[in-house]
Amino acid sequence: MKKYVIGLDYGTDSVRAVLIDTENGAELATSVSYYQRWKEGKFCQPEQNQFRQHPLDHIEGLEKTISDVVKESGVAPESIVSICIDTTGSSPLPVNKEGIALALTPGFEQNPNAMMILWKDHTSIHEAEEINHLARNWGGEDYTKFEGGIYSSEWFWAKILHINRVDENVKNEAYSWMEHCDYITFLLSDHQDLATFKRSRCAAGHKAMWHESWNGLPSKDFLGQLDASLAELRDRLYDKTYTSDEVAGNLNQEWAAKLGLTTNTVIAVGTFDAHSGAVGAKVEENTLIRIMGTSTCDIMVAPNEIIGDKTVKGICGQVNGSVIPGLIGLEAGQSAFGDLLAWYKDILLWPTQNILMNSNIIDDNQKQLLKEEIENNLIRNLTLEAEKIPLSEAVPIALDWVNGRRTPDANQELKAAISNLSLGTKAPHIFKALVNAICFGSKKIVDRFEEEGVKIEKVIGIGGVARKSPFIMQTLANVLNMPIVVAASDQAPALGAAIYAAVAAGVYHNVQEASQKMGSDFEAEYFPQTEHVEKYAELMSQYQILADFTENNIKSKKKLIVDSL
Ligand SMILES: Nc1ncnc2c1ncn2[C@@H]1O[C@H](COP(=O)(O)OP(=O)(O)O)[C@@H](O)[C@H]1O
Ligand SMILES: O=C(CO)[C@@H](O)[C@@H](O)COP(=O)(O)O
């Protein structure tokens, strides 16, 4: 019998399912579902960096996308041997004793603090700072050492600490917290005991300071010094973690019926989108996989013998088995990549949304059509115009820190800036400057890996931006002065999840073998244009000057506030 697997990939705005043939990685069916409440902007306050998602958005998407691919593919349900789920992260949510999301229980349905705290929510900057301060000064293990030495407000403990401080009800009613990838895996699985449920190594290691060398999560002593509630919570979390080639359970009866599947389908341990994306793009040693979408994640793998006891400074962690079991997975990234351009698009759309839509000159239907035309063509037209601007022409210098800086050296308090504006600066000049900025931010990450002795011989791009914007990819190749290949799959993270699923179901012996057989082919390749490389290096040095100025400015402002207290 032929065997099929499903990879389910929860991105920032939507969830996608792919149904894959385990023999060759061919995609038989795919389905995407956008989160309805999220699309309406519910439960978020962008001006406060609050980004929450209601678990119902995820559950509705789960049911729709998997049912769709099962139906569309026409394959027999019993031939679908396994499902693996990847999600964004760190995106934790509080659950009750039964593992039900608190937001699905009476009294919490409309409470954003009881929902999933999306990776890009930065409401816990102060809590992250407290964690860093304690880790460096408490006299015990520095638990941040395998997280690049800096704990981020994007991560698990900082988020929980923040919610516990601001919402007594959630603090009291949350029996435990789960990363999104664990929560959805738990929901589908027949293994319904929270205490023994197999939590994701990838999520725990990169975001919750889990490490084998200290037997799991940070000690109760350490957590208790942050807040008594965290020390108590530790007892209701986990000690062991598991890689995604392992089985978390079988599909439970309820979900088998909902999805049109059988309970023989196994559910693999969950993981993060970036890490599964790397597997979908055939990650191997000395290869940097860049997942370029809203944000970027930069993933590498290296053998333990090469990394040894070395800790790589300023990245988002090094975790044994977070990508490929048996190898150390290294993660870095930018908190905003496509999002910087999306922000600019939003700025430019202000008159459309606020003047055009309130105008009486044309009827509502025409207004709507016009608005959609502008929205759909804005980035494309800006790209066309920005491409025409010669490098000899002055463009502004911009920073990419519109959502803080993830790596190198996490600092979510940093803000973006634009300098060198003149009366001659037009919208495409600013767009070009923003594209340069995200590429310079990328170069800082590549430089950091190399400075820390992690050799990069090949760069592979995956994700929306890698596939949709040759302009950005060419700029990146010039800035990095390295060729970049782009994976052909539109759904590399979902494909990677499907690869883990195939291993968990025993179709392949290991993730490397499955990744080579089922992983994505490559399409475009971008080569550095030697005539432009030097000019980009010069622009990068101006970026560095602006970056240092901005960072020092924020540091001194902070010092002034601290001194005046
Ligand atoms: N042609 C384009 N040029 C530049 N950026 C783009 C283009 N198309 C999409 N984007 C950006 O890509 C991001 C979405 O990336 P995608 O990989 O599809 O999603 P996600 O990161 O949620 O998985 C958005 O920030 C969007 O602004
Ligand atoms: O940070 C991680 C994984 O560690 C990502 O989940 C996060 O950047 C979100 O990724 P997307 O931009 O939605 O692809």
Give a summary of the structure in a few sentences.
The protein has 565 residues and is an alpha/beta fold.
Explain what this protein looks like in three dimensions.
- With 565 residues, the protein is α/β, with parallel strands linked by helices.
- Strands 1, 2, 3, 5, 9, 10 and 11 form a 7-stranded mixed beta sheet that branches. The protein has a 7-stranded mixed beta sheet with strand order 14-15-13-12-18-19-20, with helices on both faces. Strands 4-7 form a two-stranded antiparallel ribbon.
- Strand 2 (14-21) and strand 3 form a beta hairpin.
- The protein starts with a strand and ends with a helix.
- 52% of the residues are buried.
SSE blueprint and pairings:
Layout: E1 4-10, E2 14-21, E3 27-34, H1 36-39, E4 52-53, H2 55-73, E5 80-87, E6 92-95, E7 116-117, H3 125-137, H4 156-166, H5 168-173, E8 176-179, H6 180-188, H7 201-207, H8 220-226, H9 228-234, E9 247-250, H10 253-259, E10 266-268, E11 271-272, H11 273-280, E12 287-292, E13 296-302, H12 304-307, E14 318-320, E15 328-334, H13 338-348, H14 350-354, H15 364-388, E16 397-398, E17 418-419, H16 427-451, E18 458-462, H17 464-468, H18 470-480, E19 484-487, H19 492-504, H20 511-518, E20 522-526, H21 530-564
Parallel strand pairs: 1-5, 5-10, 5-11, 12-18, 18-19
Antiparallel strand pairs: 1-2, 2-3, 4-7, 6-8, 9-10, 12-13, 13-15, 14-15, 16-17, 19-20
Helix pairs in contact: 3-4, 8-9, 11-19, 13-16, 15-16, 16-18, 19-20
Bound molecules: adenosine-5'-diphosphate and 5-O-phosphono-L-ribulose.
5-O-phosphono-L-ribulose is lined by residues 11-12, 88-89, 119, 206, 272-274, 291, 293-295, 297, 331, 333.
